[in-house]
Each structure stands twice: as structure tokens, then as C-alpha cells.
Design brief:
It contains six helices and no strands. With 158 residues, it is mainly α. The longest helix has 27 residues.
Length: 158
């Protein structure tokens, strides 16, 4: 079909445009405009991980910062949530950095970590409602970017 419609000639002419005779450089493959969403998800996971680690450190060292009344249920103590945020934040930041590789395993780990962060902040909603709502929305964006546009840059460095 390429020969019939001349697509082969158009592609070859486009790839060689602007080259001098004897120049045999290869043209890098074109990336989709959606590839930027994967970079966005990677950076966002690193930022969310660092912020969660900071929130965990605050919960561990400033006991009165998170005020939880008797009507709130955190399931864990504030110290327990501090450790959960600290460890979870470090894991999320590392998985965000791994997502830059574009590999399938990094995308899977990124979705799992974003889902875990989302669930953690869903439970932590009673202690910090505004921040938790923002983090939940950002986690949904990360999951969407990786799941919907994850195949845009398979196994290729940025």
C-alpha cells in the first residue's frame, strides 16, 4: 500500500531533508505530544514523595502539629502515620525517579505507589482535609498519565 500511495517516498524525503550528501545520521523517532504527561507524572511523584516524607518528619518530631479530636479516626497513632508518611514518601519519590526510565515495571510500580499514597491520604483526610484532598487529586492525575499514556515512550529514556 505504501508504494501505491507513495508514502515511502514522502517519509524518505522527510527524513533526509536538510542533510548533506554522505550524511548518514539517523533521525530520532518522533515522540507523541502526550509523552510530556509521563515526565509530568515522574516529577509530580518525586515532589509528592518529598512532601510526604516532610509530613512524616513533622508528625514524628512536632507531636502537636496534627490535631486529632475524638471524632476523627486515624486507625494509627500520629506517630504511626508519621512513619507511614516518611517511608511511603521515600518509596514514592524513588518510584517517581524510576518512572523516568519509561520501563513497564517502573510504570507498574508508579501506579501502585500512587494508589497507595491516594489511599493513605484518604484515611489521613480527617487530620489534614485540604492537603489530603490536593494529594488525592494529584495521585489521580499521576495514575491517569501513566495508565493512559504509559505506552507513549516504552522502554526508552527521555
Amino acid at each position: 500500500m505504501n508504494e501505491r500511495w507513495g508514502a515511502e517516498a514522502d517519509i524518505t524525503a522527510h527524513e533526509t531533508a536538510g542533510r548533506r550528501p554522505g550524511d548518514h545520521r539517523t533521525v530520532p523517532p518522533r515522540r507523541s505530544m502526550w509523552t510530556g504527561w509521563l515526565v509530568f507524572a515522574s516529577v509530580l511523584m518525586i515532589v509528592l514523595g518529598v512532601f510526604d516524607a516532610i509530613a512524616g518528619i513533622v508528625a514524628l518530631f512536632r507531636r502537636g502539629y496534627y490535631i486529632v479530636g475524638p471524632d476523627y479516626s486515624l486507625v494509627l497513632s500520629v506517630t504511626g502515620w508519621g512513619w507511614a508518611h516518611l517511608v511511603g514518601g521515600v518509596v514514592v519519590a524513588i518510584s517517581g525517579a524510576a518512572l523516568f526510565s519509561g520501563t513497564g515495571w517502573a510504570r507498574l510500580v508508579a501506579v501502585l505507589c500512587a494508589t497507595g499514597t491516594l489511599l493513605t491520604h484518604l484515611v489521613f483526610l480527617s487530620a489534614h482535609p485540604v492537603w489530603s484532598t490536593i494529594v488525592i487529586a494529584l495521585c489521580v492525575m499521576v495514575i491517569w498519565a501513566v495508565v493512559v499514556h504509559g505506552e507513549e515512550a516504552p522502554d526508552a529514556p527521555w
